[in-house]
Specification:
This protein has helices at residues 3-39, 42-68, 82-111, 119-147, 150-179, 184-208, 218-229, 264-281; strands spanning 237-246, 249-258, 285-293. The chain has 311 residues and is mainly alpha-helical. It has 2 domains: 3-212, Alpha-lytic protease prodomain-like (Up-down Bundle), CATH 1.20.1510.10; 218-301, Cation efflux protein, cytoplasmic domain (Alpha-Beta Plaits, 2-Layer Sandwich), CATH 3.30.70.1350. A 3-stranded mixed beta sheet has the order 1-2-3. α1 packs antiparallel against α4. The chain is elongated.
Length: 311
């Protein structure tokens, strides 16, 4: 299969799962809003708002994966990968705003308590919401990990949080039915909002860091160094190893010092081998190697390469 065909297939998979998230969120929002209005439960309404943020996030993820998978062009020579990171930052800010609004409404209801009706109906809707989001979240996580997509991972994180918050709200409604304490409803809503705030912070940290061109993880850098060191009997040294990430693409560049009398062809072949080794281990990686000639004149560098196939 050609690179272009593979890229199209990947994009199609990412877009399909993002579209599924939009459909599921839209359905659940309508359910929660209707039941929230019927019951007068601020915790259910807070869940509807949370799901609305999930829907916005799903729409952002849908468009960001379509844009980020576009190949490099004249205006974006390094590709469009950072669109995914930007979408993740926007999603995190939306979650933060939603949680603040939920806390505001819940405090108002604590000060002016109201009875919660049709508790059983609310519990059923929360259970259905948790089940649907669990299924969709697992699908999103699977594709996100396969394609290293921060946008889909962010969307999956939204839904995973929604699973826990829906179960929390459902549990709160169950306690209201058992104890008759309607004040539990806004308390549960505040706990949901605090959980969402934590979610927003984690997502913002994950999405924003690559925008600052931060290095790859220590584990990934270790893998890169291991692949380079496999060929240390041929080159003399390497330095200036730099790494960064944009969307799902990892960028690696380094300076490789080779013996002074190594031919251009052999040096180029060595670079190709190292680049291939790294790209086989780390998915979605682009490697750039700058060659330098060793000027030390030491015994280690006095090597001859008469055979063109020596590497």
């Amino acid at each position: 299969m050609s690179t272009k065909a593979m890229s199209t297939k990947v994009m199609s998979t990412k877009v399909k799962v993002a579209r599924l998230s939009i459909f599921s969120n839209t359905t659940l929002i309508l359910l929660k809003l209707i039941v929230g209005i019927i019951t007068g439960s601020v915790s259910i309404i807070s869940e509807a708002i949370h799901s609305t943020m999930d829907l916005v996030a799903a729409i952002i993820a849908f468009f960001s994966v379509k844009i980020s998978d576009k190949p490099a062009d004249e205006n974006h020579p390094y590709g469009h990968g950072k669109f995914e990171n930007i979408s993740g930052v926007i999603e995190a800010l939306l979650i933060f705003l939603a949680s603040v609004w939920i806390i505001f409404e819940a405090v108002k209801k604590l000060l002016h308590p109201e009875d919660v009706g049709s508790v059983g109906l609310g519990f059923i809707v929360m259970f259905i919401s948790a089940l649907v989001n669990q299924i969709v979240s697992k699908k999103l996580y699977k594709v996100a990990k396969q394609e290293d997509s921060i946008a889909l991972e962010a969307d999956a994180l939204h839904l995973k949080a929604d699973v826990y918050t829906s179960l929390g709200v459902g549990g709160g409604l169950l306690l209201i039915w058992i104890t008759g304490l309607n004040s539990l409803d806004p308390i549960v809503a505040i706990l949901v909002a605090i959980f969402i705030l934590k979610e927003a912070y984690e997502l913002l940290k994950t999405a924003f860091t690559p925008l600052l061109d931060a290095k790859l993880s220590d584990e990934e850098i270790k893998v890169v160094e291991e692949q380079i060191n496999k060929h240390d009997s041929i080159y003399c040294d390497f330095h200036n190893l730099r790494t960064r990430k944009a969307g799902s693409i990892k960028y690696i560049d380094l300076h490789l010092v080779v013996p002074e009398n190594m031919s251009v062809k052999n040096a180029h072949d060595l670079c190709d081998i190292i680049e291939d080794d790294i790209e086989k281990i780390l998915k979605n990686t682009e490697v750039m190697i700058h060659l330098e000639s060793c000027k030390k004149g030491c015994e280690e560098c006095i090597r001859t390469y008469n055979d063109d196939n020596c590497i």
